[in-house]
Amino acid sequence: MEVERQQLFSANVYTTFINSIGDSQNINRVLFNQFLESKRFHTFSHPENNRYENTYVPLQHVPAVSKIFTTAKQIAREITNQQLEIEKNNWWFNYMSWGNITNIHNHSPGPVMSGVYYIKAPKNSGRISFTYKRMHIRESSYFQFIGDYFNDVSFEPMEGMMILFPSWLDHKVGGQYANGSRLSLAFNLRLPN
C-alpha cells in the first residue's frame, strides 16, 4: 500500500533588515531614547516571568515607530497582496532584562500577520523560536495522532532586523542572558475594518 504525505498548512516566516528606510542604528537610537523618555506614560499588560509582558506607549511619545510600521505594511502588502493595517492599540514594546523569557503563545484569532522589530538586541539576548507545539489546541489526543516530533526553528535577534509571520504560528522567546537590556517592538497586521 502506498501512502502519500501532503503538507497542507506550511508557514512562511519572513526576515529582513530595514536599512532601506535609512540608517537603522540611527532609528534604533532614537526609538530607544523615545522609549526611555516616555516612561511616565507607559502602561503594562499582564505580569509574567518576573516582568510585565507588554509595554504600551502612546504613539505621540514614540513617533519613530511610524517608520517601522510603514515598512512592515509595505512588506506585508508584497507578501499577501493585501493592504493590511496596524491598529493604534495593536502594537507594544517588549523590554527584557537578564533572565527574562516569553512563554509560547500566538496572536490569533484576528490578525493576519504579526511582526517583531529589534531595537536593542545584544548577543545572547534571547532567541525567538517558532514552534509546532500547537499550544492553542486543547484536544488531549491531538499529539497521539500526529506525533510531537517537530523541531523548533529559532532566530538570533539582531538590531535592525524585522520578522513577519502568520499570527496563528506559536512562538516564544528564550532566556535573555546578555549584559544589558533587550528592546523589541511587536505588532499585529489586520485587514482594514
Describe what you observe in this structure.
- It is a single chain.
- The protein is of the alpha+beta class and 193 residues long.
- The protein has one domain: Sandwich (Jelly Rolls).
- The chain contains three helices and 13 strands.
- A five-stranded antiparallel beta sheet has the order 1-11-8-13-6, with helices on one face. Strands 7-12-9-10 form a four-stranded antiparallel beta sheet, with no helix packed on it.
- A hairpin with a 2-residue loop joins strand 3 and strand 4.
- The model has no long low-confidence stretch (mean pLDDT 86).
Short note summarizing the structure:
The chain has 193 residues and is an alpha+beta fold. It has helices at residues 24-37, 65-80, 142-146, and strands at 14-17, 43-44, 47-48, 51-52, 55-56, 91-96, 102-105, 113-120, 128-130, 153-155, 161-166, 171-173, 182-189.
Keywords:
5-stranded antiparallel beta sheet; Jelly Rolls; 13 strands; 193 residues; alpha+beta; 4-stranded antiparallel beta sheet; 3 helices; globular
Strand portion? 25-35%
* CATH-derived topology: Jelly Rolls
Largest sheet: 5 strands, antiparallel
Level of helix content?
10-25%
Uncertain stretches: none
Strand order of the largest sheet: 1-11-8-13-6
The first-to-last residue Cα distance is 50 Å
Number of domains: 1
Number of helices: 3
Number of distinct beta strands: 13
